[in-house]
Structures are given as C-alpha cells and as structure tokens.
Amino acid sequence: QAQLVESGGGLVQPGGSLRLSCAASGSTFRYAMGWFRQAPGKEREFIAAISWSGVGTSYADSVKGRFAISRDTAKNTVNLQMNSLKPEDTAVYYCAGDRSRLWSSDYYSTERSAYAVWGQGTQVTVSS
C-alpha cells in the first residue's frame, strides 16, 4: 500500500521561497508524481507533474517560471521548489501518485483523475 507524506509547508512573506517534500513509502515504483493545491472555497488544481524518469515535467501557467518539481528515485522523494511566492499561492498543497502507466518511464498527467494515491496535504500561507 503506497503512502505519501508531505512536509515543508508554512508561513512565508510575499516574494519568499519554500521547498515542499513528499516522502513515498510502500509500492510507488515507476509512479508518475504530481503536486496539486486547494485554496478555501476552490477546487483542487494541478500545479506540477513529473515522470518516473524525471525527464518529463509539466507546470500550470500560474506557477511556470516560479516553481520547480524534481524527484530522487533512490530516496523515493518528490520535491517542489517554490520561489517568488504570491498571496494567491496560499493553499493546502498535496502530493499525488499516478500508477496508471507503469510501463512508461516518461509519462505524466495533469489530470486530477489520473492520480490514485494522495498525501494528507501541507498548508502554505503567503502573507505579510
């Protein structure tokens, strides 16, 4: 049973940076991974995705150029480096695992429905 645990959230001033980490345990071999976020009163939205190989990545337009997703398959972790944070980035951030195409090392998805395994989320608040 795969499990995901996020860490690294907190309070940061506008323009600041945070690094979120997602530790995977259990059977997550060859999973594509993604980060989503959900602000109060809004739907959970896609932020970034990365393939098993790490070669394939994708970002939402709202974070492109500011956020960077990476993974360490040896340590079974996925990270989200967030720079130039804005108040509108305030949300609960979720790590998610996609096991739908384990045969493809370069596959990733931006669709929430593709992800079967979710972490519990970590709060990120951007405020002065």
Quantity of strands, as a count: 11
The CA-CA distance between the termini, in Å, is 40 Å
Low-confidence stretches: none
Taking Cα atoms only, what radius of gyration do you get, to the nearest Å?
14 Å
- Give the topology string: H per helix, E per strand: EEEEEEEEEEE
How large is the count of helical segments?
Answer: 0
Helical fraction = under 10%
Principal-axis shape equals globular
What is the mean pLDDT? 95
Beta-strand content? over 45%
Overall structural class, as computed from helix and strand content, comes to mainly beta
**Biggest sheet statistics:** 7 strands, mixed
Structural summary, described in words:
- With 128 residues, this protein is mainly beta.
- Strands 2, 4, 5, 6, 9, 10 and 11 form a seven-stranded mixed sheet that branches.
- Strand 7 (67-72) and strand 8 form a beta hairpin.
- It is globular, with a radius of gyration of 14 Å.
- It has strands spanning 3-7, 10-12, 18-25, 32-38, 45-50, 57-59, 67-72, 77-82, 91-98, 117-118, 122-126.
From the structure above, extract its key features:
128 residues; single chain; 46% strand; 0% helix; globular; seven-stranded mixed sheet; mainly beta
Topology:
Layout: E1 3-7, E2 10-12, E3 18-25, E4 32-38, E5 45-50, E6 57-59, E7 67-72, E8 77-82, E9 91-98, E10 117-118, E11 122-126
TL;DR?
By secondary structure, the protein is mainly beta. The protein is built from no helices and 11 strands.
